[in-house]
Amino acid sequence: MPIIRLACVFLIGLILVKNGLHLTSWSFFGILGLIVIIAFASYEEGLLFNIYKDVRRRMSKWIPIIDANTCDGCNQCVLKCKAQGLQLIEKKAALTNPSICLSDGDCVSECPRGSIHMEWVEMKKADPHLIGTWRFETIEKERPSKKS
User: Fold this and answer.
1) How far apart are alpha carbons 24 and 28 in whole angstroms?
2) DSSP β-bridge partners for residue 60
3) b/e per residue 76-95 (b: at least 16 CB within 10 A)
4) How remote is the C-alpha of 83 from its chain's centroid?
5) Mean pLDDT of each 10-residue bin along the chain, 148 residues long
6) Positions of E strands within 8-81
7) To pair with 131 at 20 to 30 A between CA atoms, which of 15, 35, 69, 97?
């Protein structure tokens, strides 16, 4: 069945190219259409591109994690933060803007109670300027097999 479907797509692409070749300005679009259609069909069937895995990238940033149970709100970490990403909220330190964190860990060494430690935290999207320390990982998951 996949070969028949690919042959039909190929014939449609040939018709697009043949019709496109009559008008010089349309020949580019005809060939482009053929390439797109064949590539799409081949990807779906796994024929042209040997793609059997779903590949995603996970982005993590090295940021301070504050234990609210042990933080006494002394404000030393907030004053030490060069990026001004830490603030006191309800008398506890909090990282209010992780995207501007420099990932330098100065706040960790400044905390007298040891309430702050650095950790890799997964981020939904990367900061456009990539301020701080980032880690990008490729995650591969097996594609579910198609049922005919």
Assistant:
1) 8
2) 122, 135
3) ebbeebebebbeeeeebbbb
4) 24
5) 61 62 55 66 52 66 94 95 94 92 94 95 77 81 57
6) 53-66
7) 69
Q: Rounded to whole angstroms, how far apart are CA atoms 10 and 84?
A: 59
Tokens representing residue 98 in the block:
């992780």
Phi-psi label, residue 27: left if phi above 0, alpha if psi -120 to 50, beta otherwise: alpha
User: Pairing between strand 53-66 and 134-142?
Assistant: antiparallel
- Show Cβ contacts of residue 12 under 8 Å, excluding neighbours closer than 6 positions: 37
Residues making up the chain, counted from first to last: 148
C-beta of residue 47 within 8 angstroms of C-beta of residue 59: no
